Request: fold
Amino acid sequence: MKYVLVTGGVVSGLGKGVTASSIGLVLKACGLRVTSIKIDPYLNMDAGTMSPFEHGEVFVLDDGGEVDLDLGNYERFLDLTLTRENNITTGKIYQSVLEKERRGDYLGKTVQVVPHITDAIKNHIESVATIPVDGQEGPADVCVIELGGTVGDIESMPFIEALRQLSFSVGPDNFCLIHVSLVPVLGVVGEQKTKPTQHSVRELRALGLTPHLLACRSAQPILDNTKEKLSQFCHVPAGNILNVHDVPNIWHVPLLLRNQNAHHSILKQLNLLSPRIAAAPDLRDWTNLAATHDNLTNSVKIAMVGKYVGLTDSYLSVVKALLHACIACSLKPSIDWIAATDLEDESSKSTPEAHAAAWETLRKASCVLVPGGFGDRGVKGMILAANYARENKVPYFGICLGMQISVIEFARNVLGWEKANSTEFDDGTPNPVVIFMPEGSKTHMGSTMRLGSRRTLFQTPDCITSRMYHNSKYVDERHRHRYEVNPEFIGAFEEAGLKFVGKDETGNRMEILELPSHPFYVGVQFHPEFKSRPRRPSPVFLGFILAATGQLNFYLEKQQNGS
Ligand code: GLN
Reply:
């Protein structure tokens, strides 16, 4: 196994994940099989219990792992299906060591950070790296490891030490360290500053690791003399100093790296520089994608009604899935964020101006999306948005909570059950149309939801979603929820026109709803955003965007005719 370690310096939020994914992609385009590991040095066992407001979205994997959003970048860039083990946290490592200690595996010994924690980290990395994640058998050729946080953080110290030991044990031919750093400019026409990078490289070297390549983030391309300075003071050959300056969209990053021969430097370090592998990486697809994205002119207005507003990271995969679907339709997504509380009539969290502006934005949008979420903040506003979309025949797409919202709205306003609710928001509702799932836990929050890939069987071939999913009989999508539509009331809903066109294998769990009297009113209990890929948009997202631009029927007819 060859390892490429990506560390970060100076500040967080440099786009280390995108840089690491792009490095993986360039290597993959050289014909290598690539896997990836993200290390998060926090104590949480996984990202599942962390707020998307603070930490960005919780990404969900096929196996039900609730992981850092960077794993989403890896899956999308490298087209992988990762496992929960590919996200290592301090919590996971400590738990495994402490379990061993209680079992008596270290009997007689003092259990210490060095060597027990560091050994556990090394063993974990070496075993996870061999898990096949690209649909082929056997381990990949290269494992890209991204170390979260910045070098020098107290909490990442055991990881740095473990990685230092790993680099020594696997030998120099099998280890390449790329340090992502910032080259800031002070003032409007100031000089590009190399000192922060120098300091963070010095920190890294003091810990026993020397970078082979530097990936320098900057607003503008870095100048030759800046590069020379960095080379001299950071002990990195000038040819190995990569510049990752700001680009119009992230799909340019792999191209930027390829153009600077990053693959050449990395392969050389890894002793993989055979003529077959070193041939220019084939990135034609990505070149097209990046250029298409740059040249999009027509846009589609999407109202996104949620709890967190304007925080792309909190709904990162939904934003990406919208982009993938829009690109397939040659459209630029124009996402209008609406704080659900602003739609409510008398919300303590809003003002009359914000209320008016929110409604104006909603009315101007071509379609409405209510994404997943937890807790009752903004629920009233989301119900109003679903009601507006249903009554005005505006395409509506509800994901997870968004589907549950449309059920509550329908119960209240069509069935006339005024107090209908989810027991998540009102335990005493006389019409519990959304209820807690029996297998959940109310006392333990970590990893106790219905998680990961589950099968949905289409109940009829004659619905929009099954047709969008290429008339397949079933679909496997990823889940993350505690509540479900109450199966007791399905008869009443269906009689009134709301159809549950997708159910799980037992037939009791509602997975997809549609309103056939509406051009596109779709709710899904799963999260299709997690499996969307740049070239393979999620079918439901695609249907939503096609409906928003009046092209859905044409598309479905064309598909039926096989063209
Ligand atoms: N809060 C809802 C539930 O737990 C929806 C979850 C979600 O949107 N991911 O079922």
